[in-house]
Amino acid sequence: MRILISGGGTGGHFYPALAMCEGLRKKYPDAQFAYVGTKTGVEARVLPTYKWIRFHPIHASGLYRNRPLRNALGMIQLLLGFLQAIAVFVRFRPQLVIGVGGYASFAPTLLGALLGRLLPIRTAIHEQNVIGGRANRWLSRVVDLVMLSFAQSDRSFPHARKTVVTGNPIREEFLHVKRSPAIYRHFGLDPQRRTILVFGGSKGSAEITDQVLYGKDDIAQNEDLQILLITGDAQAEASIRRELDATGITNIVVKGYVHQMGAAFAIADLVVCRAGATSLAEITSCGKASILVPWKEAADDHQRKNAELMEDERACTVADDDVIVSHGLVGAILGQMGDELGLERMAGNAKRMGQQRAEARILGEIGMLMREVGP
Predict the structure, then answer these.
(1) 3-state DSSP assignment of residue 157
(2) CATH number, domain containing residue 26
(3) Shared-domain flag, residues 200 and 63
(4) pLDDT of 74-103, one tens digit each?
(5) How far apart are alpha carbons 44 and 49 in whole angstroms?
(6) Domain check: are 322 and 361 in the same one?
(7) Domain, as residue range, for 139
(8) What is the pTM (predicted TM-score) of this model?
């Protein structure tokens, strides 16, 4: 079986795709894998370490309202991407094509759906967010299957042939790593202090980092707490370390990148991050209390919709502009850490929302498509 995954750009699209690939490889050890993404996406940085996945970068771009010049360039990019996708299909000859969102998913998944009318090729897409992305909304009209992370997402795909709620898969490390003194030592943290994990997603967040540094003196005064701050930027890491060293603050530990995020989650008493779909899947599957800071520039404001869904279930606190202006992000963090019952309640509600069997459900749905294709 030859399986092609397309999409990515951000960790929110890519890491669920990687979890799918790893699960499919275990279930079908003879399968061959190819991944179509972009040269600038997170997939281009991570996939070279996965020698069993052939990575094919293509051109991709979105289209925007009232921006005719940019749309003209975008159409050229899409055409180039479609031609590049044809070349990938000629060489790899996929039997199953799975789109995971992002502009790079459009051309390969559409091509797979069109060829599937003549050849034994099946197609599926996976939507991670509450609000369906533009590429996935278009593709849902032609693919064989739409897999959803949330039941509420169904309204984004009124013309889909088939939809099924599977949840959003996460890497196995999040489910199996447990809190231990060794993990605290690995990160340079104190096992006797409560830990707040702060990060901004696969590309970091200067806004969140700046908020933590703005309130660093208040953090330093609280000897019961410590922050593991992940910036997503090696240069920022070095600069912030110098700043913290100069002020003698020891209960903020800064890292540019953390590849063992499952370990970081295991020791977190509170998670502070953006409201991307993958972060939400990790938070809920691990049963963690959280403060979500929706990214205002997200397409269709989908991060706010993600956060609102969690907030409606009392599974998080949302730190929007009003909260940050009134209290500062650190003020919101300290206030939340002072509410022990609130932390326990949020963690329990998040755990109840978690979909730890998302990967198994996805593999089951994909398995049915594969049986339609044949060996």
Answers:
(1) coil
(2) 3.40.50.2000
(3) no
(4) 678 788 989 999 999 999 999 999 999 888
(5) 10
(6) no
(7) 2-168+357-373
(8) 0.85
